[in-house]
Specification:
alpha/beta
Length: 284
């Protein structure tokens, strides 16, 4: 009897440890060979299977963070950098909605101070993303949407404009897109915006989301209509989010950080739910 009790106790301890380990794990780390023999890593969380009846099968969202784009994923698939980014914070909400997620890090040759820098508009960057899309589509036997926020919107639009065939995304979501670069800056890539890309070549469904209280000089919400005016998706929607915390809007560079209206702070669940509705064929 005592042996049975000890065995049961040991089983409980192992199960508890396993649950704790699972809770700490943010996703399976997948590595692929990218441009010029570099390595690209992403954290993959599979679709839950709760939406098996969705047209095209399960949905996976390929997430592209803003800023430098270097997440520094650890062995558990958790971001050690850019943890405050809105897409990183929204992964649990996307998972709850039944979507899979692939949080993509910067390739190994862009881990410096500037991160992706001017590489976001490069054709090789789009091709790297295309490799991930094709792999996810084969693995999940479903659809893959590219979601980019802030400077990550440049990467997302670049991929949607350049890719074709199995490597092309099934849809595009841009949130707080970087639409106003800084011309004449010391680093030339600071002038880049989504408008530097051939948006006319984007022919998949497009959702553009911004916040009315976004005071980041790089993502003025009054410019969002120019994006959907140029893209040629069969379904397009522009959404301006309002509300949020009742506190003064940040100024300067702080206004471009994730924990601000620019990153839909305290409205992550609302925005994720709207994205889910659009991806599934409805309105935000």
């Amino acid at each position: 009897m005592r042996r049975l009790v000890l065995r049961a106790a040991l089983g409980w301890l192992l199960a508890t440890a396993g649950l704790a380990l699972a809770a700490e794990r943010c996703g399976e780390v997948v590595s692929v060979e990218a441009h010029d023999r570099s390595t690209l890593r992403y954290a993959f969380v599979p679709p839950s299977g709760g939406q098996a009846a969705e047209p095209g099968g399960p949905v996976t969202l390929l997430l592209l963070a803003g800023g430098a784009g270097h997440l520094d994923l650890d062995a558990q698939g958790c971001a050690r950098k850019l943890k405050g980014n809105s897409l990183v914070r929204s992964i649990p909400a996307f998972t709850e909605a039944g979507f899979g997620t692939a949080l993509v890090d910067a390739p190994s040759d862009f881990h410096g101070e500037d991160g992706l820098g001017g590489f976001r508009t490069d054709a090789r960057h789009a091709q790297d993303i295309g490799q991930v899309i094709a792999g996810l589509r084969t693995r999940t036997r479903g659809t893959v949407w590219v979601v980019g926020t802030s400077r990550g919107a440049i990467s997302a639009a670049n991929a949607a404009a350049r890719l074709a065939g199995p490597a092309a995304p099934d849809g595009l979501v841009l949130t707080s897109a970087l639409m106003a670069g800084q011309a004449g800056a010391k680093k030339a890539w600071v002038a880049q915006s989504v408008f530097d890309l051939p948006l006319e070549d984007i022919t998949v469904p497009v959702l553009v989301v911004g916040h009315a209280a976004d005071t980041c000089v790089r993502s003025p919400p009054n410019l969002m209509d120019r994006i959907v005016a140029r893209t040629r998706g069969p379904r397009q929607q522009l959404v301006t989010v309002t509300g949020g915390p009742a506190r003064p809007a940040p100024v300067g560079l702080d206004a471009c950080e994730g924990r601000s209206p620019h990153g839909f702070v305290e409205q992550e669940a609302e925005v994720a739910a709207g994205i889910a509705r659009f991806v599934r064929g409805g309105r935000y």
